């Protein structure tokens, strides 16, 4: 069974993705700091599927947490949802957004490289394209 790491996996989109992965018989490890999510979503996914999820409460910027995950689990691929996304707030707190979204993603990619994980799905949103003209 292939194991997928889902960052931000306790959020709305992440938890729905986890549900689909479990239904397709993947092993799932979720890394989420619960800043915009609840672990309850994962308990509900487990109840719906009858399968368990490995949940790690932590941050993608934490190299020790990432090293532990990649060392303890044979991760085949990463689906990366752990990003801040509120446009208005990003204007008010640009450094927080940069640190989480850019530095966090780089930290994740470095951990993947260190552990020879070469498959990633990077989730984004239409907000990266700006306001429609």
UniProtKB/TrEMBL annotation:
Cofactor(s) the protein needs: NAD(+)
SUPFAM superfamilies cross-referenced by the UniProt entry: NAD(P)-binding Rossmann-fold domains (SSF51735)
NAD-dependent epimerase/dehydratase domain ranges (all copies): 4-132
Keyword Flavoprotein among record annotations: no
One annotated GO molecular function: UDP-glucose 4-epimerase activity
Keywords for this protein: Carbohydrate metabolism, Galactose metabolism, Isomerase, NAD
GO biological process: galactose metabolic process
Protein name: UDP-glucose 4-epimerase
InterPro entries: Epimerase_deHydtase, NAD(P)-bd_dom_sf
Species per Swiss-Prot/TrEMBL record: Alteromonas macleodii
Pathway: Carbohydrate metabolism; galactose metabolism
Family the entry assigns: Belongs to the NAD(P)-dependent epimerase/dehydratase family.
């Amino acid at each position: 069974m292939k194991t997928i790491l889902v960052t931000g996996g306790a959020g709305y989109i992440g938890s729905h993705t986890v549900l689909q992965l479990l239904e397709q018989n993947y092993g799932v490890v979720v890394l989420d700091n619960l800043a915009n999510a609840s672990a309850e979503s994962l308990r509900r996914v487990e109840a719906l599927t009858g399968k368990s999820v490995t949940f790690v409460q932590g941050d993608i910027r934490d190299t020790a947490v990432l090293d532990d995950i990649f060392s303890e689990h044979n991760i085949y691929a990463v689906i990366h949802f752990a990003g801040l996304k509120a446009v208005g707030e990003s204007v008010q707190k640009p450094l927080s957004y940069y640190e989480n979204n850019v530095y966090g993603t780089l930290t994740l990619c470095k951990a993947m490289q260190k552990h020879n994980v070469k498959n990633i799905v990077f989730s984004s949103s239409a907000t990266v394209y700006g306001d429609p003209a």
